[in-house]
Specification:
2 copies of one chain form a homodimer. The first copy, chain A, is an alpha/beta fold. Chain A has a single domain, classed as Nitrilase/N-carbamoyl-D-aminoacid amidohydrolase (4-Layer Sandwich). Chain A is about 25% helix and about 25% strand. The first copy, chain A, has a 6-stranded mixed beta sheet. The first copy, chain A, has a 6-stranded mixed beta sheet with strand order 6-7-8-10-13-14, covered by helices on one side. In chain A, helix 1 packs parallel to helix 2. The radius of gyration of chain A is 19 Å and the shape is globular. In chain A, about 50% of the residues are buried. The model of chain A has no long low-confidence stretch (mean pLDDT about 95). Chains A and B meet through helix 4 and helix 5 of A and helix 4 and helix 5 of B.
Chain lengths: ~300, ~300
Amino acid sequence: MPARRIHVAILQHAYQGDRLATLRHTAGMLEQAKQKYASLDLVVLPELHPYAYFCQHEDPSHFALAQNYPQDMEFCSHLAKEHGVVLVSSLFEKRMEGVFSNTAVVFERNGAVAGIQRKMHIPDDPRFYEKFYFTPGDNFAPIATSVGNLGVLVCWDQWYPEAARIMALQKADVLIYPSAIGWVNDSSESAQEKALQREAWRGVQRGHSIANVMPVITSNRVGLELDPSGHTRGLLFFGSSFIYGAFGKELALGTQGEEIVYACLDLEESKETRLMWPFFRDRRIEAYGALLKRVVEES
Amino acid sequence: MPARRIHVAILQHAYQGDRLATLRHTAGMLEQAKQKYASLDLVVLPELHPYAYFCQHEDPSHFALAQNYPQDMEFCSHLAKEHGVVLVSSLFEKRMEGVFSNTAVVFERNGAVAGIQRKMHIPDDPRFYEKFYFTPGDNFAPIATSVGNLGVLVCWDQWYPEAARIMALQKADVLIYPSAIGWVNDSSESAQEKALQREAWRGVQRGHSIANVMPVITSNRVGLELDPSGHTRGLLFFGSSFIYGAFGKELALGTQGEEIVYACLDLEESKETRLMWPFFRDRRIEAYGALLKRVVEES
């Protein structure tokens, strides 16, 4: 089978103190990436990249950020067109009064919106109070683009084998997860626990790559962000963005600092590998009914 | 939470040339394991451990092996009782004329049958012609024992996130996979490809441990087994049996030779970890309908 190679860059960056400065910073990194990799096809940004990670506390004033959704889309559209790349952004969307979403927006090389995917699984634990801000998305659907069928999901979605599988069953070519994951910025968790968390985060997504025989691209934020409420010492986003090939092979792994994380992906590799590892052939769909239950109670 | 520790041993061994010699070999290894770990609770054997891996070719004479199912059960029952351990065996079962299963049988410490689980997903690729021999099992159900609720599955089942999830939703405490996986015994696949296969095998199951926040115990055969048809140079079973803790932490990893692979598992660890990584809380069951489809065709 002929190769179908795409050049992918993740722009792993920190929040720059305000929204417009951060968007300009993104633009600068994209320019660098394009200089380094002239034939760049696909660029992935971290979750909620233009903003501080505002979910560290519950404050209704943060909903005002979503008013910028049209301008943020326009900025990203311009970036995609200027550099001729497919761009995966992650923005704060207001759908109607009282309904806000954590929304990945994908732009075509000509700046057109190729599609959006709203975050489906919404987390809520200390310092990640996302259930206050985000209404869950409606459904899972890959986004057709000039580089392939993109199975875009958002952060917490990455822990769910169901989400990855549903994208694969809809013929996504690749899974893409903009993320914002960090450690608590204090000693309440040991270095060993923190390492285990990061390795679990990578490991579960490597599992999706293997089980679905398809590549995975995951971006993450970096840097320390303080807790505006002052109740905690904030979050340290740990970067470590990564790209896996079609059977869990590590193609790129970022540091904890700002960085362009690059790999060349062959989207035909999945096809070949699925012929000898035909997991999709043998699924027992008639025995999977329990997957649609919350818990299977004892009878 | 108080710990609920269980001592687990995998008896990673090779086929000994005939069925009874192999069962005696298993008995000898269990005796050794019991001498080394006096408080042993749970013992896991490789897939189809009393027999040659007979699926390298399609030969109806091999169905005769299933006539030994009652005697093989009796042998294993005796082993469990003699050493006071819960024992996970993997046998060839005849359910009726023309219906044969690849069946994990679990014995209680007193030798009673705690339950069985038939292999649900049946592979079929060159040198693994299992669809000729095995009718798929009916359903997924954990087996209640004195050491916990065991989510036992068999080999090819280990590549399916659906199977692991359904066991977890039925409150399994641990996933257990008797396996028979090996490399082709020739140079048609490079050393690099072979390594990638083994790492994918471990990685997908590590993914189940993380996504379901529960331990995984996987046994494998070792040794070269020739192809009785003479058409190929046979299979080299690669051992590498492993035990992961409740969040993908590697607790034990076997070599490629015969070996007792041991770990002490804390079954309470899942409970604690699930409080801070509450994946089960946030599943989007109303959006998972596509999991019950073979392929989601374009509309």
